[in-house]
């Protein structure tokens, strides 16, 4: 009986240990490893396009020529006949000086000419009388030479007086400010009652010789542009206006402060009047020799040593691969890549520094994790 009870107890104890063993192991901290969830990544498809091969620059619409108009003589401005924004015609009087002093100077020149003419007439008559007397020996050669010299001097003084009178007449006409070219008044720098010096700027006028866009180009880009090349011009104020211009001028010397070159792009002659002076314009130059580029967000770039790289989604869609790339340009709107990627590949565009080639990933669908 005792043996039987012992065997039954042994069987019962073995069964209990088999049942309790997993719980004992769990109590000791031994757990099965749970799978690491796939990390969501945001991706974008690679797309190469020639549109990024254009070089675009921002500039200002300016007149091709601008005149700094001023009087050719000094004096007090009596009246100003134009205002800013007025359109003027060639030969139109824009302002006038007080011509009182100029009129007096003209009268003085006329009086000096009359005196010189009288003197020239008298000396010429004396010379005419002395000529036959010299031939008959009545007067000496020295006396005749003295009379002839006086006649020559009087004639020279007459010519000088005539020139002075012409100058005085011109100066009187200079009291009216006119231009040989038409245009638009862009600035008024002196007003009636103000005394101005000779040549001092009174009005600034944009002539009717055409409008242009002035842009500043860095020295790395100016070497790729040539005078006579075509350009596309778009206005920021009116996106519906698209014009085709021509690169007319490249300054030969860079600005010492900004180290940029000033370029002038001519607008077409039929440009609408809405293209006003001072408007902001964007000028684009096509580059047929530039390769197609893929524009990626700056956050997609990963530094592999000293070379740039990006994470590309593997064909299995659950891993990423680090791919070296060749960057064409770092732009305000992203990174322009010209080599290292294929059309249609998916590139991780955010969190590139947190990825690993062995990490499981999934394409983020935009929802919460």
UniProtKB/TrEMBL annotation:
Residues 106-175 form the Multidrug resistance protein MdtA-like alpha-helical hairpin domain. This is Uncharacterized protein. Residues 213-285 form the CusB-like beta-barrel domain. Residues 296-353 form the Multidrug resistance protein MdtA-like C-terminal permuted SH3 domain. Keywords: Coiled coil. GO terms for cellular component: efflux pump complex. InterPro entries: Beta-barrel_RND_2 (IPR058792), MdtA-like_C (IPR058627), MdtA-like_HH (IPR058624), RND_pump_MFP (IPR006143). SUPFAM superfamilies: HlyD-like secretion proteins. PANTHER family: HLYD FAMILY OF SECRETION PROTEINS, MULTIDRUG RESISTANCE PROTEIN MDTA. Belongs to the membrane fusion protein (MFP) (TC 8.A.1) family. It comes from Niveispirillum lacus. Residues 99-126 form a coiled coil. Transmembrane segments: none annotated. Gene3D superfamilies: 2.40.30.170, 2.40.420.20, 2.40.50.100, Helix hairpin bin. The lineage of its organism: Bacteria, Pseudomonadati, Pseudomonadota, Alphaproteobacteria, Rhodospirillales. One of its GO terms (molecular function) is efflux transmembrane transporter activity.
